[in-house]
Each structure stands twice: as structure tokens, then as C-alpha cells.
Recover the amino acids of this structure.
């Protein structure tokens, strides 16, 4: 059965690297894997998403609405936006991070203070303070690897040798930090 | 060896394995990464051309001289390259030649949606459509073999989801290909009318031979399953269909799609009760199926625009959309892309948008974002290079109407080299007085930082002659040329005042590098203190007027509780635009 993982966030949060590591690990584990991303204008502070699908034989690289097994959002508002994609019994992981968009900065719109409450009305979200935890590790940019850890745990992928995959995809000077980040992510969800 | 590759990476890999030695392109989403990857192979000479027409002609030249060549472009790039391409089809190849078009159903990063399969048909060029990355490799390799056998260039039609989706590929070794000998052969390569008439006959014969090949091509295959529904699909739609119908349908997967296999299609249609044709954009296959006298369901049920993802197919076939969670959509805030903190376009557009009674004729690049809030500083965008020429026509029209309305045109450095130069020649030659702004951020920005003739480096990062825009526009005959710092708002205002008062054409070059650029030594020498400082808000002086926020910097935000603006230290690069906007001098440099 093909599994579908949706990573969403804001341009610059590291969703692409997280999905690259994820897909490489899945391939090494012997799965057929497809991933789809939209590049281009969305890089400039817009919403971004990476779609990962794996299984014995994957057909579409694109996840249908209402069919994602797990949605991992690197930002609160983007979690709400992606709710359409989550299966009824799917898992939602939300990084407890709020990034104002330009319409909020210029005062045209207000970032609502009850985004998590709105999400919780529909699904029990696993809220992770990935940005704060990464900051405590020494680099807020490692939040993406913490969130990758939550996917590994939620999808039961701990048997894959992630340390090796990290080593192949991350610069040596950041490797230890990211190994720790991954472990924090795995332990952050039951 | 197995590897996960995007379709773009796989096209480059296929070219490498096929023994390609020459590649040219102009960047354009979603095709850009093809040439970027080609440039990483030592065995391939790869270059950025100023536009797609030049890229096409250069690739033709390499083919005529006996090498296997590739040219890649986004869908709208093929409009630019169409002129040489149509006659190239008559000539036929020497070394194989593959033309990649990357179409954008859904327009993620494009100004239109066009189905370039129509070009293959109109130009009478053989075409294939890959569905995943492995097929990208296989089809590129086959295109060189078949192209040399049948004496034809090949078009490979990709779409965004094929270009930017990763799937697993098997890597093979590079083929050792000997260059073909070049011999004088005007009967093949000089398209005079008398010669072209002969070539036109040969072209017809070639297409007939290719139509016969298409019937047995391994890229056109039947997969029989349940015969109640038969699906004819090409490209990514094949996998979308498999996702939706699985084993509950039979499939005719078409990979070799010009010419289409008439008999194969007819045989398939006879074997199934009902035929769906699944293809994004135009009814290219559907019309052919119907011409063969076969009944099929196509655009009367499925959309003629946008992506045809599995949920779209499912909704069309079953009449109901997938079940999704209902939530309060009023809680959503928009998150449109925006200029980065430190973007050199910010200062210019912040001031330009405040001008009264001007029309701003824009172009294709990051700066097209200036059309939106808070700048509202763009009134038209059509295609690459159009800003200057469209603005010229508008200025002449306003003048004829007796209006004092002025036209300001805006385009990037790479866009100017692409096709803006011709437009500026027109403006000078035809005695206009538009104000033409060239946003020289020292790189091709939007597509992810490719070198261009103004950067002084090639696609392979080798040093080359740097073409100075100010010298070029002076040579064209522009007498009023100003090079300014767009982060200096007074300089922006003063220069605009001067140029708007002129009765002759002017060029303003706003020179400051893209904040995301990897700076060259020349950049560091030319620009002082390049993004090396940070600004902060002096809370005692800030009155919370929020005027600075109208400059649209993502590093700034309003603290409603404190009624003060704050600057995100991690994002600020000290461009100082906000400093000049603040009426209370409350924004200062960090110590």
C-alpha cells in the first residue's frame, strides 16, 4: 500500500532538505519512492510543499486531497491550509511556529491567535516546539530535522539507518547537531 | 547504480549517457535545472544563451557540425525559438539534436499555459513524452538514435510534475559516440526556396516513416486489464490514471506522440467498451483518436486547463470530490511570495509606485511581484523583453491622445539581454521618450541564480567578457544613462524626476546585487558593505506609525502590545530602505 507524506511550510524553512533525506532513506530501505515539489516563485517567502510517496510501486508523485497519511507542517498557518490533504484518521504534526506573511506585516490581515484551536476542532494535532528545541541545540535551522524525526516515528521508519543517510546529505560540521535533532524529533511524538 | 532523480536531472543524465557534447539553454521554470545539471558533466560543453532562439540556433550549429546537441527551454521559450525550429525540421540533423520543452499546466511560475505538443505537430518534428525520470533517460537516448536514423530533430515534452518530481533511475555508462563528418551540403542546409521545396517533400516522407515506427515503438504500449474502461494517456497523466483506476481498466500508454500511432489506437479502442483520453491542456491525442473514427471521452468530461491530478480525474469520473476535513477557511491568511529582506527591487518600487499618472510597463522576473501590494507598481506584464516595446507603443498612444501621461518600463538585467535590447533599439530609432529601468541585480534571480552576459562568468563558472549594460545602451544611442543605487531613495526620486522630464529616451540602471547571490570578487570590490550590517528600531523614538511597514520588508513586524515596530535580526541585512522611510529617524544601525 502506498503511503503519502506531505511536508508544508514557508520558503526557507528547510522542507526540501528534510524531504530529500527522507526519500533517500526510503530508497535505501528498498521502497519505490516518488517526490514532487513546486519550485519557482513560491521560494520568495510563499507557502511551500513537498509531497513524498512510497511503497512497493508508486504511481502518482502527487498526493490527492483527503489522502495524506501524515501532514507535517513547519508553521501553524500552513498546517491549517494543508488540512484539506489529511486523511480522516491521518496524523498531523505542527511546529509551534508563527511566521507572519506580508499581508500581516503591512496590516491588511491579522494572524489569528486561535489557529491551533481551529485545527484541534478537526484533528488531534501533535504540536512540537521544533524551532525552540533546535535553538536550544544551537541552531534554529535544525528544526527541519527535528520535524523529520517526527515523521520517522509516526510512520514507523526507525529501522532505517538514518545516521548514514544524514552523513551523506549534511555537511560534516553540522552532522552531530543534526543527529541529535533527529533523535529529539523521534522522541517528541509517541 | 540506483539514484533518485528529478525529471530535469534525468534529462541531463540521459544526454550524458547518449554521448551529447553540446548543450545550450536560457533559464526558465521548470526547465532550468536541465542545463544546470548538463553543466556538471565534464564531457558536455554547456552554455547559457541570452535567449531561446540563440540557444536553438547554436544547438543546430553543433548538430550540423556533427555533434549530438541538446537545447532546453520552458514552454514560452519555444515561442522565441520557433523561428529556427520550423526550418530546422526541414533540414534534418547531422549529429542528433533533442529539443526539450517544459510545459506548465497549472502555471506555477509562468504567465500562460500552452501545450507545446502543438508545436511538434505544426513543425513536423518527432516527439516523445516521458512519464517519470527513468523514461526521461530512456527517451533522450532513443531520441538520439532514432533522430540520426530518421534524420530528424526530436522534441521531448515535459511538464512541471515530470520536471520537478523525483523517482528512481538506473544509471548506465556514457556511450562513446564519434562525431559525424561535416560536408558541404547546400541541398540539405541552405533553405533557399528552391531547396526548401525539395526538403518539404522529404519532410513529408520522413513523417510517414515515423508514423509507421510509432505503431511499434516500445514507448507506445498496451496494458490490458478490465476491458470495461480503456484509458489512453501520455506523460504524467498515465500515472495519475493508474493511481485512480489501478487494475480496473486497460491502458494505452503513449510515449511516442508525434506522429501518433493510428492503428494501435484503433485496435485498442475496439478492445474496450469505453475510452477515456487523459491528457493535460489541449485535446491533442483526443482529436486524433476522433479523427480515426473512434469514440472517446475527453475534454467534454475532463478539464482543458490546469493540472489533471488524480483527485481531478476522480471527481470528473465519479462526480464527487474526495472527502476532506471541513474547517473555517476564514481563519486562513494569504501567503503570497514577496521580495526578500534586502532585495534591491524594494527601494525602487516603493518609490516608483507612489508616482502619479505614470504607466509602468513590466516584465518577467522576481520584480513582477511589484504588481501586488504594498507597491502596486506594475501595470502590464506579457513576456520576456516586452516591457520596453509595449511601453513604447503605449507612450506613443498617450502622446497621440494629447495626454501628459508618462511611461516607465522595468525589466531585469538578464531579461534585457534576452530580448530587451531589440526593444530598446526600437525606442531609440522611433524617437520615443520612455524611461527605461534596467534592474541590474548582477544575476538571473528568479530562476535561481544563473550567470548571464552581464555577470562575467559562464554556465560552467569560467571567467568571460563582462558585457556592461551602460556601454551597450549608450552604443544603441541612448544619451541619458544613469547608474544608481536603488537602496538610496533620494537618488531614485531625483533620477526619476530628471528622466520623466526628458523628451528623449532614457535608461536608469539600478545596480545592487540580489541578496541571495553568491557574491563574486567583482561584487565585493564594487559594492561597499555588502549586506554586512543590521538595523534596529530605537523604541524610544518609534511612534508606531507603521509607515516603514509599507516598504514591504519581511524582516519587519508590528508588536501590537508595545505599539512599536520590530526588526527580525536574523533576516535584516541592513539595506537601509526602512531607515529612509521612517519619519522619526527611529531606525538605526546596530552598534
Amino acid at each position: 500500500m502506498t503511503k503519502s507524506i506531505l511536508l508544508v511550510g514557508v520558503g526557507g524553512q528547510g522542507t526540501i532538505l528534510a524531504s530529500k533525506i527522507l526519500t533517500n532513506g526510503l530508497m535505501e530501505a528498498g521502497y519505490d519512492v516518488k517526490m514532487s515539489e513546486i519550485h519557482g516563485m513560491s521560494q520568495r517567502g510563499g507557502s511551500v510543499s513537498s509531497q513524498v510517496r512510497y511503497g512497493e510501486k508508486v504511481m502518482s508523485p502527487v498526493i490527492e486531497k483527503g489522502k495524506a497519511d501524515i501532514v507535517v507542517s513547519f508553521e501553524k498557518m500552513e498546517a491549517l491550509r494543508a488540512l484539506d490533504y489529511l486523511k480522516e484518521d491521518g496524523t498531523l504534526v505542527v511546529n509551534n511556529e508563527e511566521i507572519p506573511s506580508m499581508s500581516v506585516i503591512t496590516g491588511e490581515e491579522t494572524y489569528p491567535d486561535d489557529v491551533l484551536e481551529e485545527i484541534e476542532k478537526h484533528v488531534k494535532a501533535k504540536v512540537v516546539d521544533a524551532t525552540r528545541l533546535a535553538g536550544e541545540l544551537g541552531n534554529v535551522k535544525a528544526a527541519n530535522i527535528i520535524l523529520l524525526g517526527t515523521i520517522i516515528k509516526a510512520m514507523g521508519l526507525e529501522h532505517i539507518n538514518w545516521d548514514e543517510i544524514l552523513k551523506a546529505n549534511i555537511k560534516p560540521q553540522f552532522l552531530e547537531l543534526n543527529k541529535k535533532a533527529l533523535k529529539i524529533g523521534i522522541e517528541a511524538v509517541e | 547504480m540506483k539514484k533518485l532523480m528529478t525529471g530535469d536531472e534525468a534529462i541531463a543524465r540521459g544526454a550524458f549517457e547518449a554521448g551529447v557534447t553540446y548543450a545550450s539553454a536560457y533559464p526558465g521554470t521548470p526547465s532550468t535545472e536541465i542545463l544546470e545539471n548538463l553543466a556538471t558533466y565534464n564531457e558536455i560543453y554547456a552554455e547559457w544563451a541570452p535567449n531561446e532562439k540563440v540557444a536553438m540556433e547554436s544547438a543546430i550549429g553543433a548538430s550540423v557540425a556533427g555533434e549530438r546537441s541538446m537545447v532546453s527551454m520552458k514552454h514560452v521559450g519555444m515561442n522565441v525559438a520557433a523561428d529556427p525550429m520550423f526550418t530546422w525540421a526541414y533540414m534534418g540533423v547531422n549529429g542528433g539534436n533533442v529539443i526539450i520543452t517544459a510545459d506548465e499546466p497549472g502555471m506555477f511560475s509562468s504567465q500562460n499555459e500552452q501545450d507545446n505538443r502543438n508545436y511538434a505537430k505544426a513543425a513536423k518534428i518527432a516527439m516523445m513524452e516521458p512519464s517519470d525520470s527513468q523514461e526521461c533517460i530512456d527517451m533522450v537516448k532513443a531520441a538520439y538514435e532514432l533522430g540520426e536514423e530518421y534524420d530528424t530533430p526530436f522534441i521531448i515534452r515535459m511538464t512541471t510534475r515530470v520536471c520537478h518530481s523525483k523517482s528512481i533511475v538506473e544509471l548506465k555508462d556514457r556511450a562513446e559516440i564519434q562525431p559525424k563528418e561535416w560536408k558541404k551540403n547546400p541541398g540539405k542546409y541552405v533553405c533557399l526556396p528552391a531547396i526548401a521545396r525539395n526538403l518539404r517533400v522529404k519532410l513529408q516522407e520522413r513523417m510517414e516513416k515515423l508514423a509507421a515506427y510509432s505503431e511499434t515503438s516500445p514507448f507506445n504500449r498496451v496494458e490490458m486489464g478490465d476491458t470495461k474502461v480503456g484509458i489512453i494517456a501520455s506523460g504524467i497523466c498515465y500515472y495519475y490514471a493508474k493511481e485512480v483506476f489501478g487494475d480496473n481498466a486497460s491502458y494505452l500508454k503513449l510515449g511516442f506522440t508525434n506522429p501518433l500511432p493510428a492503428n494501435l489506437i484503433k485496435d485498442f479502442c475496439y478492445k474496450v467498451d469505453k475510452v477515456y483520453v487523459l491528457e493535460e491542456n489541449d485535446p491533442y491525442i483526443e482529436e486524433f483518436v476522433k479523427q480515426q473514427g473512434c469514440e472517446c471521452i475527453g475534454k467534454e468530461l475532463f478539464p482543458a486547463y490546469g493540472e489533471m491530478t488524480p483527485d481531478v480525474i476522480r471527481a470528473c469520473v465519479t462526480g464527487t470530490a474526495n472527502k476532506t476535513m471541513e474547517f473555517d477557511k476564514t481563519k486562513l491568511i494569504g501567503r503570497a511570495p514577496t521580495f526578500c529582506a534586502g532585495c534591491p527591487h524594494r527601494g525602487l518600487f516603493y518609490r516608483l509606485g507612489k508616482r502619479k499618472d505614470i504607466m509602468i510597463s513590466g516584465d518577467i522576473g522576481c520584480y513582477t511581484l511589484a504588481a501586488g501590494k504594498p507597491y502596486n507598481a506594475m501595470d502590464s506584464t506579457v513576456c520576456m523583453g516586452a516591457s520596453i516595446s509595449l511601453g513604447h507603443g503605449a507612450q506613443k498612444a498617450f502622446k497621440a491622445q494629447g495626454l501628459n501621461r508618462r511611461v516607465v518600463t522595468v525589466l531585469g538585467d538578464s531579461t534585457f539581454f534576452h530580448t530587451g535590447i531589440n526593444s530598446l533599439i526600437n525606442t531609440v530609432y522611433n524617437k520615443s521618450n520612455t524611461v527605461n529601468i534596467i534592474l541590474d541585480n548582477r544575476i538571473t534571480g528568479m530562476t535561481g541564480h544563473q550567470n548571464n552576459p552581464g555577470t562575467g562568468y559562464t554556465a560552467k563558472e569560467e571567467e568571460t567578457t563582462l558585457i556592461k549594460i551602460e556601454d551597450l545602451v549608450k552604443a544603441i544611442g541612448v544619451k541619458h544613462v544613469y547608474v544608481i543605487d536603488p537602496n538610496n531613495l533620494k537618488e531614485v526620486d531625483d533620477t526619476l524626476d530628471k528622466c520623466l522630464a526628458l523628451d528623449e529616451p532614457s535608461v536608469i540602471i539600478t545596480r545592487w546585487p540580489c541578496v541571495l547571490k553568491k557574491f563574486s570578487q567583482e561584487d565585493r570590490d564594487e559594492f561597499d558593505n555588502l549586506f554586512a550590517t543590521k538595523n534596529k528600531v530605537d523604541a524610544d523614538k518609534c511612534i508606531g506609525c507603521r509607515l516603514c511597514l509599507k516598504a514591504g520588508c519581511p524582516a519587519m513586524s508590528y508588536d501590537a502590545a508595545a505599539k512599536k515596530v520590530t526588526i527580525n535580526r536574523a533576516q535584516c541585512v541592513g539595506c537601509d530602505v526602512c531607515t529612509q522611510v521612517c519619519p522619526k529617524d527611529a531606525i538605526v544601525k546596530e552598534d
Summary: Chain B touches chain A through 59 residues (CB under 8 Å). Chain B has a mean pLDDT of 97. The two ends of chain B are 54 Å apart (CA to CA).
